[in-house]
Amino acid sequence: MTRAPASRALDTTPLWLKLSSYLVLSEEEKMYLADLERTIAREPPRTDLLQQGEKYRDVRIIRDGWAIRHKALPDGRRQVVNFVLPGDIIGMYCTLFESADHSVTTLTAVEVASFPPERIGEMFRSFPRLAAALAWSGAREEAMVAERLLSLGRRTALERTAHLIVELLRRLSVVNMATDGHFVLPVTQEILADALGLSIVHINRTLRRLRDSGLIELNGQRITVNDVRQLASVGQFDELYLHLIRVPKRLERAFAGPRHQNNNKREDDDRAKA
Amino acid sequence: MTRAPASRALDTTPLWLKLSSYLVLSEEEKMYLADLERTIAREPPRTDLLQQGEKYRDVRIIRDGWAIRHKALPDGRRQVVNFVLPGDIIGMYCTLFESADHSVTTLTAVEVASFPPERIGEMFRSFPRLAAALAWSGAREEAMVAERLLSLGRRTALERTAHLIVELLRRLSVVNMATDGHFVLPVTQEILADALGLSIVHINRTLRRLRDSGLIELNGQRITVNDVRQLASVGQFDELYLHLIRVPKRLERAFAGPRHQNNNKREDDDRAKA
DNA sequence: CCGACCGATTAACCTATGTTGTGGCCGCCT
DNA sequence: AGGCGGCCACAACATAGGTTAATCGGTCGG
């Protein structure tokens, strides 16, 4: 992995880390990405970054902290669609819609970068590989939602819970936020319940079962997964849907346009084995 | 709506109809779209167009017939993620992934167009508005999955079922496949059950309740919705998530690149009110 | 230090939905 | 014609998960 010592700080952006797990970015692309993340704001916990029904504003990149994407029924019942972690993007395709059909709310204090949606189009034109990497990230998010749908429709409470924990572990690992099996889960049981389509009480029962069976440990917000293998097996976790495999060759053919000369020779060779 | 009598046949493509509900396409774009749908195949019912774990092939456009997108657990439990209707696209971002995390299976005989994934990139470069319209269609699909997640997590069986029927009615209306409240539902109760996360028996009970309350009628595969309003209210249906509103102005700014000269003057004015 | 509130925990009870099993209809095969 | 398989229908029973309610330990503002 090419790493210019001078620009090292850029390398540690969660989005950069995530995209790097997919393809190797050139210096130029890295710089462009850094520029996208230039305008940074901080928000306290329990802030709405976006509200159901509201018009979309800028595209946001979460740089630090947790948030949830959720939808509510008029009578107050709520479903958490997904967790938004560092390196995740909010409203990537916001230009396409008039208004948001979901809300995004911070769970912790959060650091967010934002940029105007026009830059997405700009990126598709000038940095197609980078745009493809962002599209990958978006498509992956959709795949996670579909997988959660499978959970809610066909997995038992125990399976769902196990599955979610493994998923979070995997996602956090990519951005260096989980070290051998433990991570911080800044989430109340109510939110877990809303994510898994269960009642608070039942989530509590289920977590107790997982603890009693020794698969996980909970100390405050720190969760430790003692045996990922076994937990994954309980949750029927098949990581296919996370699409963590390196970009296939044909990506180049599809997204790198003729007017974008190849400035990634080294990395291309790098990836030949995939 | 501008309609050249000579090219009328092109207008009736379901995908064209769907995209037209979003933005007005130019003649040039219409021709490009027609070209994408040039290679056509027919498949019988119960054919897998795509299998979980398999490598992606071409991008497909359903021109006629129904299919389902579904995921399965190793032990056979199955969740239908979404229904694939005429005008829907399969594997739009397939280049980005190594292999499919879901299957697509036909329910009826089906007519599908297919084209190599490279053309998506080509379209982003040469017909950005059209590409944006396809991206809209994709993002909308994701929104539907999220809404179904809300259903499975937080709606009761009766609500879910009502919601799904209204959703299908709306989607089919866009492609002229539903006329005042009735349409063909080529779907067994088993498939409905798998779509709604219920057992066959319970779907049966639930449909009977809807029939008994006079909200719907079923004759074979023909379903008639007697009172959409009331059914929508039972299902807490809020069509926000279908994003049927015309494209907002700023789409142009974001996606229409400088090198694609505006060849849609008339339609642009057309849309100014939005 | 006090009161108020929030979140976790657990028990007791309840119900929406799952399971099992039977029968009936219809289309298809031979 | 007869038999078979797929699908619908419905009844009887079983249970996963929901609801209600009570307790407890923190923590925060004053």
TrEMBL record, chains A, B:
Q: List the protein's name.
A: Crp/Fnr family transcriptional regulator
Alphabetized, the UniProt keywords read:
DNA-binding, Transcription, Transcription regulation
Q: Where is the composition biased (Basic and acidic residues)?
A: 264-274
- Family matches, as CDD domains: CAP_ED, HTH_CRP
Q: Where is the HTH crp-type domain?
A: 155-229
Which parts of the sequence are annotated with region: Disordered?
A: 255-274
